[in-house]
Amino acid sequence: MSKPRLLNREEDTAPLERDLLVRMHDLMVKARVLEERLIQMYKQGHGYFWIGGPGEEAFNVPLGLLMKKGQGPAYDYLHAHYRQSATMLALGEEPIGALRQMKNTASDPYSGGRNFAGHFSKRAWNIAPVSSPIEVQYVMAPGTALAQKRHGGEGITIVTGGDAGTAEGDFASCLVWSSRPGTELPVLMIVTNNQWGISTPAATQHGETNVADRGRAFNIRTKTIDGNDPVTAWRELKEAMEYVRRERKPFLMEAKVSRLYGHSSASGANMVGGELDCLVRFEERLLADGVLTREQMDGVRARHTEEIAALARQVREEPLPGPETIWNHIYAERK
Amino acid sequence: MANMAQAVRMALHYAEQNLGVTDIFGEDVGAPLGGVFTATQGLKTAWNTPLDERGIIGMAIGLAMAGQRPVAEIQFADYIYNTIDLLKIAGNTCWATHGDWNLPMVVKTPVGSGIRGSIYHSHSFDATATHIPGWKIVIPSNPLDAYGLMISACQEINPVMYLEPKALLRIKGEERIPGEPDDDKLLSKLIDAPLGDRSQWQPQWPAELTGYAVPIGKGKVVRPGAQLTVVSYGRTLPLCKKAADDLAAEGVDAEVIDMRSLWPYDWELIKGSVEKTGRVLYVNEDTEVTNFGEHLVRRTVEELFYKLLAPPRLLAGKFLPGIGLADTLEMASVPQQADITAALRALAAEQP
Fold first, then answer.
1. Please, are residues B219 and B259 in contact by the beta-carbon 8 Å criterion?
2. Distance from CA of A36 to the nearest CA of B (A)
3. Which of A211, A222, B5, B95 could link B169 by a cystine bridge, Cβ 3.0 to 4.6 Å?
4. CB contact, 8 Å: B59 with chain A?
5. Which residues pair with A226 in a beta bridge?
6. What is the rounded CA–CA span in Å between residue A26 and residue B274?
7. SS3 for B63-132, per residue?
8. Measured between CA atoms, how close is A96 to chain B, in angstroms?
């Protein structure tokens, strides 16, 4: 057992390699630019609905970088919610997929034009399909984790959701099913806590001090961290993942994050005040530590902005699925 | 002959031995009980779950995603309702991901009245199940079909809802399941868990069991007839068969069709029969408003209108909030033998 650490004490933070910091910054910017482009597409009428994760990049990028990517129980499963674009990019996904899903083109790689933005699915990387009902991913996670427990090796199941969703029974189901005595499961339960459920402040609905405290009743190891700091997120995720990989037992992590553009396009998709911007804070730190110059960071943003804008223009010309395709894939067929 | 619970058990044993079934689970499904209807006794992959229906369906989805082949049980269909959105997700996963994911999973659950189950152990699920696209839905009316449909369900690469008419689970079959012993007492001795301490008990499965399968989507004519058609499934099917046999003495010649699969279903079989007889009665025991039989009536009207000699009829459960415990209440709530016989008699005699 390592000695318990206070939350985000700078001196406890081991310095990360410069290359990693630069890579994380690049991916955070890329994810932010992608989300901003998706919002713009929505506002220009190139999509019906936007929902995503601007404000969660500091946590979601390290998550993607640390995942063991591949297909089947030897690799990590991700049961995500719809604020995970930064994780997808960190895994190596091309941003054009998200743009295609926004525009609901036939070429949308996740749903063929059927589902909302941010509803990723990629079987080749164990990315379980994201669906709109809140928290259902938490009852599926124990299933993939049981297969992994049986399979052996280091693959774990990661499930993510928001704080508001923890009010659903499915969150409790995950705690129960992951911690059955003698059949504990390798599940990393993650709650990205942005303090909101659409328009409802968490403080008006939740009596628990920390969401993570709910794991203790089940003897699940827990931690509440600052998810707005990629260095902290990297270190804490790495430690939690190592525990789950090695012990084949669950871990509940609560990451405090921001929600920079509100809930979704349903609430306007406008930049809101009073939220800490993880990217701004990270850039200040990179600047202060001499990791990157302002010009370099501005260059990163300009490059991603230009590339993603070009992709968006390309996607705008792509056709919608044909009406006859509604009948495709109701059932899987033997190949 | 085996009863339906034994048939399900033997099919699941065959499936875990030969068809890759990895997990058979639900509340009290594993040892010592082996299911509240004994359908999972002695199975090597059977295990007990927390008392959490949403957890059970979620577990099945997760296992199926990770390449396992789960058979999940909801103890009574009355308790499946809090999982509807998960059933909807299981049904839409292949479609919503444009073919990226498929879920080879079976959900089995006992349905219907007939065991004095009161308000929460008597409900049917066929109307609701057939309202959830992306599933295949089967419901046997006898042990042989129960065996063959379970074999098919365990070979499917899509979600299958396996509805077990609980009133028939302890009824012995009239046809032999391939590989079952001829002697019922011997079968019971081999595969039924003893009363009392079962900690040392091991089943002795019949070695000759086969992969006998009833294809999903295929109905069966259980009694040929020329004058009218009665289409049913589950608990009411044997009642329809008996009604038709009884009415033969009155000169009524009814054809009886067992649907066996509710989705996809054997429209060609039904259509051929109705074209021949011109009269059809659909019978089931789910509540009659937005009942699956109403869909069949609509299709009959739309496609066979000019072949009909009488309006297509539906005999189903009354549209009530539940089935009351008192015998008088249950009998009045869902179709019984006399109701079916009377409905068939009336349809046979109906003139414009």
1. yes
2. 25
3. B5
4. yes
5. A256
6. 68
7. HHHCCCCEEEECCCHHHCHHHHHHHHHHHHHHHHCCCCCCCCCEEEEEECCCCCCHHHCCCCCHHHHCCC
8. 17
**Is-contact B2 B172, C-beta < 8 A?**
yes
B300 in Cβ contact with B280 (< 8 Å): yes
Which residues are CB-neighbours of B266 under 8 A, at least 6 positions away? B217, B218, B219, B259, B260
Note the pLDDT tens digit of each residue in B61-107.
999 999 999 999 999 999 999 999 999 999 999 999 999 999 999 99
Backbone angles phi, psi at A140, to 5 degrees: -85, -30
| pTM reported for the whole predicted model | 0.96
Inter-residue contact A69 to A75 (CB < 8 Å)? yes
Taking the alpha carbons at both ends of chain B, their separation in whole angstroms is 46
Residues of B in contact with A144 (CB under 8 A): 62-63, 65-66
pLDDT confidence of residue A5: 42
For A1-32, what is each residue's pLDDT tens digit?
344 444 444 445 557 899 999 999 999 999 99
Ranges A177-181, B113-117, B154-158: which has the least confidence: B113-117
Residue A14: per-residue pLDDT: 53
Interchain proximity B86–A330, CB inside 8 Å: no
Chain A nearest CA to B50, separation (Å): 7
Task: Count CB-CB contacts under 10 A for residue B251.
Answer: 8
Per the DSSP assignment, residues forming a β-bridge with A64 are none
Chain-wide mean pLDDT for chain B? 98
Residue type, B105: M
Residues 6+ apart with CB under 8 A from A277: A55, A258, A260
Distance from the Cα of residue B51 to its chain's centroid? 24
- Name residue B138's beta-bridge partners: B162, B261
Region B202-226 average pLDDT:
98
Query: Average pLDDT in the B269-283 region?
Result: 98
Question: What is the predicted pLDDT for the residue at A33?
Answer: 98
* Nearest by Cα to A140 from A78, A86, A193, A66: A78
Report whether B1 contacts B172 (CB < 8 A): yes
Q: Which neighbouring-strand residues pair with B314? A: B282
Residue B303 contacts residue B333 (beta carbons within 8 Å): no
- DSSP bridge pairs for A201: A196
pLDDT one-digit tens code per residue, A236-254? 999 999 999 999 999 999 9
Share of chain A above pLDDT 70, in %: 96
Q: Is the peptide bond before B224 cis (omega within 30 degrees of 0)?
A: no
Contacts of residue B50, Cβ cutoff 8 Å, sequence gap at least 6: A173, A176, A177, A180
Residue B17 in tokens: 């031995």
Which residues, numbered 83 to 102 in chain B, qualify as contacts with chain A under a Cβ-Cβ cut-off of 8 Å? 85-86, 89, 93-102
Q: What is the pLDDT of residues B170-207, one digit of tens each?
A: 999 999 999 999 999 999 999 999 999 999 999 999 99
Q: What is the mean pLDDT of residues B116-130?
A: 95
Q: What pLDDT, in 10s, does the model give residues A100-132? A: 999 999 999 999 999 999 999 999 999 999 999
DSSP string, B304-316: HGGG-SS--EEEE
Predicted confidence at residue A15, as pLDDT, reads: 74
How many angstroms separate the Cα of B87 from the Cα of each of A197, B129, B136, B259, B264?
Answer: 25, 9, 12, 22, 17
Return the residue matching tokens 């969660």. Answer: A56
Q: Which of B66, B89, B133 sits opposite A136 (nearest CB)?
A: B89
Q: Is the dihedral of CA B319, B325, B327, B329 positive or negative?
A: negative
